[in-house]
Amino acid sequence: SWEWIAKPLFSLTPLSEALTVYTDAGRKSHKAAVVWRQEMGPWKTQLIQGLPQDSLQMLELRAVIWALQTFNEPLNIVTDSLYVVGVVARIESSAIKEIDNKWLFSLFV
Q: So which residues are the signal peptide here (predicted)?
Protein backbone atom coordinates (compact mmCIF):
# COMPACT_ATOMS: atom_id res chain seq x y z
CA SER A 1 0.00 0.00 0.00
CA TRP A 2 1.23 3.48 -0.91
CA GLU A 3 0.95 6.50 1.30
CA TRP A 4 1.47 10.04 0.04
CA ILE A 5 3.60 12.31 2.16
CA ALA A 6 3.00 15.99 1.59
CA LYS A 7 6.15 18.10 1.47
CA PRO A 8 5.33 21.46 3.05
CA LEU A 9 6.37 24.59 1.21
CA PHE A 10 6.56 26.62 4.42
CA SER A 11 9.64 26.45 6.65
CA LEU A 12 10.56 28.29 9.83
CA THR A 13 14.22 27.58 9.03
CA PRO A 14 15.78 29.92 6.43
CA LEU A 15 16.61 28.28 3.10
CA SER A 16 20.31 28.53 2.27
CA GLU A 17 19.96 28.99 -1.51
CA ALA A 18 16.86 31.20 -1.52
CA LEU A 19 16.25 34.84 -2.34
CA THR A 20 15.49 36.88 0.79
CA VAL A 21 12.77 39.51 0.52
CA TYR A 22 11.76 41.99 3.22
CA THR A 23 8.18 43.18 3.53
CA ASP A 24 6.60 45.97 5.54
CA ALA A 25 3.60 48.28 5.44
CA GLY A 26 2.59 51.68 6.75
CA ARG A 27 -0.82 52.38 8.21
CA LYS A 28 -0.77 56.15 7.55
CA SER A 29 0.63 55.94 4.02
CA HIS A 30 -1.62 53.00 3.04
CA LYS A 31 1.37 51.47 1.26
CA ALA A 32 3.23 48.19 1.50
CA ALA A 33 6.78 47.59 0.35
CA VAL A 34 8.85 44.63 -0.78
CA VAL A 35 12.65 44.99 -0.86
CA TRP A 36 15.18 42.48 -2.22
CA ARG A 37 18.62 42.13 -3.73
CA GLN A 38 19.75 39.37 -6.07
CA GLU A 39 23.37 38.16 -6.05
CA MET A 40 24.89 41.29 -4.50
CA GLY A 41 23.29 43.49 -7.15
CA PRO A 42 21.43 46.72 -6.44
CA TRP A 43 18.57 46.74 -3.96
CA LYS A 44 15.15 46.71 -5.64
CA THR A 45 11.87 47.93 -4.21
CA GLN A 46 8.22 47.39 -5.07
CA LEU A 47 5.69 49.77 -3.51
CA ILE A 48 2.11 48.57 -3.33
CA GLN A 49 -0.61 51.18 -2.95
CA GLY A 50 -3.42 50.15 -0.64
CA LEU A 51 -6.89 51.56 -0.19
CA PRO A 52 -7.90 53.93 2.64
CA GLN A 53 -10.01 51.19 4.25
CA ASP A 54 -7.17 48.62 4.25
CA SER A 55 -5.94 47.53 7.66
CA LEU A 56 -2.23 47.29 8.38
CA GLN A 57 -2.55 43.49 8.41
CA MET A 58 -4.14 43.47 4.95
CA LEU A 59 -1.34 45.65 3.58
CA GLU A 60 1.31 43.38 5.12
CA LEU A 61 -0.42 40.33 3.64
CA ARG A 62 -0.64 42.00 0.25
CA ALA A 63 3.15 42.55 0.22
CA VAL A 64 3.86 38.89 0.97
CA ILE A 65 1.38 37.72 -1.67
CA TRP A 66 3.02 40.03 -4.21
CA ALA A 67 6.40 38.43 -3.44
CA LEU A 68 5.03 34.90 -3.70
CA GLN A 69 3.36 35.66 -7.03
CA THR A 70 6.33 37.55 -8.49
CA PHE A 71 9.29 35.31 -7.71
CA ASN A 72 9.33 31.83 -9.18
CA GLU A 73 12.08 30.54 -6.90
CA PRO A 74 12.53 29.57 -3.25
CA LEU A 75 12.09 32.58 -0.96
CA ASN A 76 12.98 33.60 2.55
CA ILE A 77 10.37 36.20 3.49
CA VAL A 78 11.13 38.53 6.39
CA THR A 79 8.11 40.27 7.92
CA ASP A 80 7.32 41.87 11.27
CA SER A 81 3.67 40.87 11.02
CA LEU A 82 2.61 38.01 13.31
CA TYR A 83 -0.70 38.00 11.43
CA VAL A 84 1.03 37.29 8.11
CA VAL A 85 3.30 34.62 9.61
CA GLY A 86 0.23 32.89 11.03
CA VAL A 87 -1.65 33.02 7.72
CA VAL A 88 1.32 31.74 5.69
CA ALA A 89 2.03 28.95 8.18
CA ARG A 90 -1.55 27.66 7.98
CA ILE A 91 -2.58 28.31 4.37
CA GLU A 92 -1.21 25.07 2.87
CA SER A 93 -3.55 22.85 4.88
CA SER A 94 -6.55 25.17 4.93
CA ALA A 95 -9.88 25.09 3.18
CA ILE A 96 -10.80 28.57 1.99
CA LYS A 97 -14.44 29.59 2.22
CA GLU A 98 -15.96 32.70 0.74
CA ILE A 99 -16.22 35.63 3.15
CA ASP A 100 -18.00 38.98 3.06
CA ASN A 101 -14.81 40.95 2.47
CA LYS A 102 -14.41 40.24 -1.27
CA TRP A 103 -11.00 41.92 -1.50
CA LEU A 104 -9.56 39.82 1.33
CA PHE A 105 -11.11 36.67 -0.15
CA SER A 106 -9.50 37.44 -3.52
CA LEU A 107 -6.05 37.42 -1.89
CA PHE A 108 -6.44 33.76 -0.98
CA VAL A 109 -7.73 32.34 -4.27
A: 1-18
